[in-house]
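Bench notes, afternoon.
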Amino acid sequence: MTATSTRHAITILGTGHIGFAMALLLQQAGDYDILVADRDPARLAEVAALGVATRLIGDDTSLQAAIDGRFAVLNALPFHRAVPVATLCAAAGVHYFDLTEDVASTQAIRALAAAAHSVLMPQCGLAPGFIGIVGNDLARRFDTLHTLRMRVGALPRYPQGALRYNLTWSTEGLINEYCNPCEAIVDGVRTTVPALEGLETFALDGVEYEAFNTSGGLGTLTETLAGKARQVDYQSIRYPGHNAILKLLLNDLRLRDRRDLLKDILESAIPTTDQDVIVIFATAAGLRGGRLVQESYSARIVGTELAGHRLSAIQLTTAAGICTALDLVAQGRLPQQGFVGQEAVRLGDVLANRFGVAYAEEGAQALEKTA
């Protein structure tokens, strides 16, 4: 499916790396009327150069004006703005999508959605987001699901230093993942497990990795699979040695209690990079037809160039996820009001979508051809 049947007016809030990528993907699609709003004039100018309408917002009144009357709002602001923006969208009857990994924000948005006449769909990125769609697809292949294990990493293609890591997305979001409790299903019971624990090592396509518990990646999947699986968990993938250094910083030096300082340290010491790779690896085991079987899903995604702009792998996958969610609602392929979890999305619908094709084999090249 390559287009929506009606030209819809949408607002993108935020002009960071992901907001810019969202504007670029939707502008290249050509059938959404796009407004991008932010408080940073310099970044708005970069988006305006794409030929997209922009608006400077600096208070609740200007924010409300950017929301009222739109078909949908795509929120790429920091996670602490998720609930306030979702509240405004629900009151205005405007569809709402975001990328938050913050569990508390998602729970608050779900509560808002009970009385909403528009869609409230948080967690539409990579993890949470696409990995939940993959996990649910794997789970549905079994008569009885025993274990579902999901692993995702946004990694530098050319790692340097002891951490072997570069900043590729929100530092605040990264710290949340490393510090907050992690939802899981353990022995059939929904629970939380500590971040940074559960360390494991594995090889994929000849490359050695480690993985450990991090917060937020499962979205609402533990609720969906409660009573249906023995073990469900999510871990972030890193190169070997990363976990030990994080434990030193967060536990021994107590920086988990000084997150602003940790953010300053990470941003001053670890360079950003556009030369990244997304690694996705999910496995499920259970009974089908009376036999114990295992199913797996893996993908390795790099960035691409689109209309003369370089998109990193994390920009591409995150923006593709939220744009796909928008497209599927606009096409009537998803519920049209209330809370919509990622599990409502079929993996086949994502991979067949003009934006979701970024997740498919040779996805970056396919995306360039459809733009």
